[in-house]
Amino acid sequence: MPKSKILQDDVSYSFQSYFEMPHEPEEILAELGCSLTLTELSLPKTQRSLPYLEDLRQRIRSILPLISLTSETARREALIAPILMEVARDCNCPLKMEYSLHVDPWLTGPVDYLLRSAKSLLVVSAQKHDLTRGFTQLAVELIALSKVQEQSLLYGAVTIGNVWQFGIMHTPDRRIIQDMHLYAVPDQLEDLVSILVGILEP
Predict the structure, then answer these.
(1) In Å, what is the CA distance from 194 to each residue of 46, 93, 148?
(2) DSSP run (H or E) holding 193
C-alpha cells in the first residue's frame, strides 16, 4: 500500500506549520525534494579578534539570573537578538527580523532572523524548547530561501536562546546537513560568535 502524502496539494503551509508536524524531519524534507544528514560540520570561523565579546558575555551572565527563559519572547530579547545585533554591527550587514518570505503555498511565512552579506544566514528561534522540530522549520526555510537566492551554500542556525545548532544547505544537490555540535550560551559564546561572524564576513 503506497504511503500517504504528508503535504496536500490544495493546502497552504506556513513555516510554523512544519514545526507542528508530528512526522520525522527526513520524511517532511523528502516531500520537498531534499535529503537530511546529521554529521559534524566544519564551519567557518573568523580569525579576527572580537573586542566586544567579553562585554557581551558579561551582559548575558548578569541578565540570566534576573529573567525567566520560559517564554520565547524573553529568549529572543535577552539572548538571541543581542548576539545577532552585535554580529550584524561587526559584519556591517543588514539584520531582518520577522522577514516575510513567500515562494509558493507550501513555503511561506515570516523568518525570525535573516542576515545578509556575501552569504546569507537564517536563524530560527525554536518554540517550546524543541530544537529537533525547530531544525525542521529551519531546513524548510533554507529550502524556501534557496528558491529566491542563487547561492550554492546556505547557512542556518536554530536556537532556544541558551543552546544553538547549525545547519547548511547544499543547493545544487538539494541536501540539508544538520550539525551534531551544540553551542551553549554563555559558556561557548566565543565559539558561537566566531562562527556567526565567520559565515558573514567578506
Answers:
(1) 5, 16, 27
(2) helix 189-200
How far apart CA 56 and CA 124 sit, in angstroms, is 21
Question: So where are the chain's domains?
Answer: 15-200
CATH 3.90.1570 holds for 15-200: yes
Residues in Cβ contact with 127 at an 8 Å cutoff, skipping those fewer than 6 apart: 19, 72, 133, 134
CA-CA-CA-CA dihedral for 201, 168, 120, 48, to nearest 10: -10
User: Could you tell me which residues come within 8 angstroms of residue 86 by beta carbon, excluding any fewer than 6 positions away?
Assistant: 52, 56, 193
Mean pLDDT over each residue of the chain, to the nearest integer: 95
Angle between helices 189-200 and 81-91 (to 10 degrees): 40
Report if pTM > 0.90: yes
Summarised one tens digit per residue, pLDDT across range 41-87 is 999 999 999 999 999 999 999 999 988 888 888 899 999 999 999 99
Q: Are the CB atoms for 179 and 199 separated by under 8 Å?
A: no
Nearest residue to 79 (alpha-carbon basis) of 193, 3, 176, 166: 193
